[in-house]
Description:
By secondary structure, the chain is α+β, with helices and mostly antiparallel strands. Helix content is 47%, strand content 13%. The chain contains ten helices and nine strands. It has helices at residues 45-72, 80-85, 104-117, 119-139, 142-153, 268-302, 314-342, 348-373, 384-394, 401-413, and strands spanning 159-162, 178-181, 185-196, 203-210, 216-223, 229-230, 245-256, 304-305, 308-309. Helix 6 packs antiparallel against helix 7 (314-342).
Amino acid sequence: MPQGMPNFAASPIPQMSTSANAAPRTATDLYQYHDHYLVDELLTAEQKLIRDTARQHVGKHLKPIIEERFEAASFSKDIIPGLAEIGAFGPFLPEEYGGPGLDQISYGLIMQEIERCDSGLRSLCSVQGSLAMYPIWKYGSEEQKKKWLPQMVQGKKIGCFGLTEPDFGSNPGGMVTTFQDKGDHYLLNGAKMWISNAPFADLAIVWAKAENTEGRIHGLIVERGMEGFTTPTTHGKLSLRASPTGELVFDNVKVPKANLLPNKSGLGAPMGCLDSARYGIAWGTLGVAMECYDTALRYSKQRIQFGKPIGAFQLTQKKLAEMITEITKAQLLTWRLGVLRNEGRATTAQISMAKRNNVHLALTVAREARQVLGGMGITNEYPVMRHMANLESVVTYEGTHDIHLLITGHDVTGFAAFK
């Protein structure tokens, strides 16, 4: 072992032991003590149990494989049953549709633990729960709910969400995907891109304009196997490499009328789904920040330079102190948002603020943690560089950093700068 290199008792990658870290990190040895303001005391016993169950599953089954799959840009459905077992797919779904009926803070804590491992894995769960299951639950018919939701809770059917188009990202209302009423079915044409889960999803919640109703936006359940429906995989990604991304292409796809979501239309329908997903992102990226901080803190105590641990130097302590301060502020912001969600009082603007703040926080912490790790920070011996790459997608999807700033600006001034 080179002089001065730390020998962790907790490796981020158990299957890749080298001179920097030798022994595997256990499922319970995961920054349980970085709670500067005792936020844990605000959680119920049930919420803590749900979080710890997710934490143990992630530590045992996901962390040992994630670096290899990220490097290979590989996704395997073998992780889906385990995620279903810990309630990662639609945790908030009521029991009558097969869900666990958990509260919003429990949902957030599950996302926090999964994204601590990898943003791509949390994306899988967010898309499934908040973007595919949520619209069926909120906007679907009773028949649609009973047909799809129990299977989706169990991970037996996986969904995706088709809103973004090649020419319309931040302005989804400009979409050009349309459907026509053909009497006994709808005829769907258009394309969506940057769609997580698309390459293997069993169904897609597709948002399109109805030509017969002056372009009002509706949601359609499009099923794999429908003639004219294809899902090309997106290649060459340097971010979210362990998450499958693709396009949704519709070439005269005949969609049964029973597949139209009947209970809400207009742009507010997909925006309601995005509220749920953005809320999960706020918790998930907080988990990324905590993981990167934990990695940097451990390293700083064991990396020796100039005869002492680098954590004893002022500039390293400055970095760590700023990290834990911002994490603590985000913990309180996110918990309070969860309380408001439980009470049905959280606004779109409040959710937007948390998504933007926490993604920015996670990016800042990841970059500072990378500097604490020095050259080792760019290797996959540690998760920090992978988190940095993933966050460059998270800061863009479901509303860019700038768009969320404008949402807050609109909320406080009353003027919509993006119109």
